[in-house]
Amino acid sequence: MLNKEVTIVIPSYKSRFLLINHLNYFSKKYRVIVIENSGDQILKKIIKKNYKNNKILLRKNIGFGRAVNLGARYVKTDYFFVINPDTKIYKNTIKNLTVAAKKLKFFGGLCPEHLKNKRKNFKKNFFETKKLYGGAMFFETKNFKKMTGFDENIFLYYEDNDFFYRCINLKLKMYIIKNCFHFHAIKQSSSAIMENENEKYYSYLLSGWHGQWSKFYYYKKHKNYITSFFICFPSLLKNLIQLIINITYNQKKAKFYYFKIEGLVASILGFKSYKRSIYD
After folding, report:
1. Which of 54, 168, 199, 209 has its Cβ near the most Cβ atoms within 10 Å?
2. pTM beyond 0.85, yes or no
3. What is the pLDDT of residue 33?
4. What is the 3-state secondary structure (H, E, C) of the chain?
5. Which of the two residues, 206 and 179, has the higher pLDDT score?
């Protein structure tokens, strides 16, 4: 029998094998909504054939925040749990998150403790925090929708920081729940079925572009343009120096710094987050 209180939402990009592992773990207990950003038709056929109570939405890479927002539209339970394909959760994690949610009642988000940061000597099973681990986040559906979810102008990086900042402004507290755990193997989710090393390298370049674009956008949104410029200018200068140093001896590394500069300059000039993978 499916859990009637919690839905699992998994935003994904070329993570077929990791997703199937999650479905094998979750699908008999929870409804799972997968937003696959690579348009993986094979994955869709596998899910439709083998996992009857779950939903898959195929998109051409709409980014993390928009993917979560899309999944949230189909959530009919009081709570939903966002998990990355490369995140592992441990026994009773969702059960204990649900218990905590009912006790805390009004909150911006909850998160299971990251296994490598396991804390001791806390009298309570939770503690307040200013940000959650992005690989495993638990939301109350009505509060998430009331806040309109993640900022869809952000394609990648800082979308969670932006959400947390808005939670704080709205007096919605966030908590780490101590009696449940997860482990996030960062940057492992899509490497398994990327076509070749060139695709992996281009993904690496894009991470630099979007990291810089989103950083400036985030600070401009929550502070102001001038402050954002002075916060980000040292990064611009540092990346320019690294580009000059590496342009002769290590062109691949130089290209990475070029992408970082381009992403930051695009954000400073007010361009949208337009850069996408040539392999999509």
Report:
1. 209
2. yes
3. 96
4. CCCCCEEEEEEECCCHHHHHHHHHHHCCCCEEEEEECECCHHHHHHHHHHCCCCEEEECECCCHHHHHHHHHHCCCCCEEEEECCCEEECCCHHHHHHHHHHHHCCCCEEEEEEHHHCCCCCCCCEEEECCCCCCEEEEEHHHHHHCCCCCCCCCCCCHHHHHHHHHHHCCCCEEEEEEEEEEECCCCCCHHHCCCHHHHHHHHHHHHHHHHHHHHHHHHHHCCHHHHHHHHHHHHHHHHHHHHHHCCCCHHHHHHHHHHHHHHHHHHCCCCCCCCCCCC
5. 206
